[in-house]
Amino acid sequence: MITNSSSVDSGKRSKAFRILTVVVAVLFVCSVTITAFAATGDPEVTVVDGEKSVSITAKSGSPREIAKEAGFILSPNDSLDTSAFNAEEGGTIVINRSSVIRIEDNGLVSYFIGYSDTVDDIFAGKGIVIGEKDEVSVDTESNVFEGMKVFIKRAFTVNIEVDGETRKAYLAEGTVAEALEKAGVEIGDDDIVEPSLDTELKGFTEIKITRVEYETVIEEETVEYETEIIKSDDMYVDETEIVTPGVNGEKQLYYTEKYVDGKLVETVLTEEVVTKKPVNEIKKVGTKSRETLAAYKNTDAPISELKVPSDVKLDENGIPVNYTKKVAAKATAYTGDPATSTGRKPMPGHIAVDPNEFPYGTELYIVSADGSYVYGYCVAADTGGFVEMGNTDVDLYMNNEDMCYDWGNRNITIYVLN
Predict the structure, then answer these.
(1) Which pLDDT belongs to residue 29?
(2) Most confident of the following: 301-305, 342-346, 384-388
(3) N or C: more exposed end of the chain, with fewer CB within 10 A?
């Protein structure tokens, strides 16, 4: 049998073509299937939680489910930022963790939920206004965090009454002392502050300051000398002698004056300092008794009939207290003369003298040295013959001769009054 070689080759080529066609068709179908499968697969999603991020091929579901699929646990208040994510193409999901913070505003407690906010953001979002003098326990620019506690202390006004005016201080807490410091009020050691400096302030308060000052005043004063008495039986009871003159001393008196708000309210003597000691007077006083002074013939009236002037003071013994000098002398007596040398009427009280010793008109007071007679107040008005004889000093006028004889020539004491 004769085979046609060309027919055989043609048949082989036809069979090979059909096989190639089938392979190409299969490859095409596979290519289309793979392409279709790739076009309909799950998108890639990156979930970010702070500094941690996880990328996954997400299955279909909500962003919260995708975050859980990525291994993140969400609390009910956490929020998700999906601005860079969509369900078809995937993308990035950012977890914003919620933070519950506690805010105590002047004792009123509130809880707020924050995310990546600062404290200032929370205040702004919740309408919490912080005054210039208010105090916040945290830096308001810091970010909030879970369990954060914020304390707001509201400032209040303190009125301070001091130095005649009212000053104001503003503070959220503190003591009276701190309020005064804020107001620039200085306190002296003796000032009175009400309420006290250590009083804790909780709200509006009125503080009163009473200024108290003390001043020392020094006054000079005389220290009068004292008199020391030395008794002497060599002298009569109406006689004295200054042995040592007294000299006054000096002392300083220290007074403490208390001023309240500028007004003097109290003065207290706090100290006495003697700067010069006094010298005591030493006086010798007689103790020898005199016979009781008597007038003529034991009457109560003196012999002189002249009235004692009102400016002449007599002590309890009838002796002048105020006189210029005392003279021990002798006296005689006379009577019956019709006139005196000075023209005065002759009478008891107008006596004869030596004008060179007692000028006319000199006022005298005369008693006998032994105290038995009081001639009394008299005036030098006459001149007697005794002047030339020199045996007497004065001649006393009497009403009659019996009185003159009775008087005789006696020792007397003359008190010169002028």
Answers:
(1) 37
(2) 342-346
(3) N
Mean pLDDT value of segment 187-208: 94
* pLDDT at residue 37 greater than cutoff 60: no
CA distance 242 to 390: 33
Q: Are 46 and 70 in contact (CB under 8 A)?
A: no
- Calpha distance 215→259 (Å, rounded): 8
Joined together, the tokens standing for residue 80 give: 């998700």
Q: Contact at 8 Å (CB) between 258 and 266?
A: yes
8 A C-beta contact, residue 158 and residue 199: no
Burial 383-410 (b: 16+ CB within 10 A, else e): bbebbeeeebbbbbbbeeeebbeebeeb
> In the 3-class helix/strand/coil scheme, how is 215-284 assigned residue by residue?
EEEEEEEEECCCEEEEEEEEEECCCEEEEECCECEEEEEEEEEEEECCEEEEEEEEEEEEEECCECEEEE
d(CA 259, CA 276) in angstroms, rounded, equals 32
Gyration radius of the chain over CA positions: 68
β-pairing, 394-397 with 325-334?
parallel
Distance CA 245, CA 259 (A): 44
Q: Exposed e or buried b for every residue in 309-327, given b needs 16+ CB within 10 A?
A: eeebeeeeebbbeebeeee
Q: How confident is the model at residue 2 (pLDDT cuts 50, 70, 90)?
A: very low
Q: What is the pTM of this model?
A: 0.44
CA 379 to CA 359: how far, in whole Å?
A: 10
Beta bridge partners of 215: 257
Length of the chain: 418
Residue with tokens 């043609």: 10
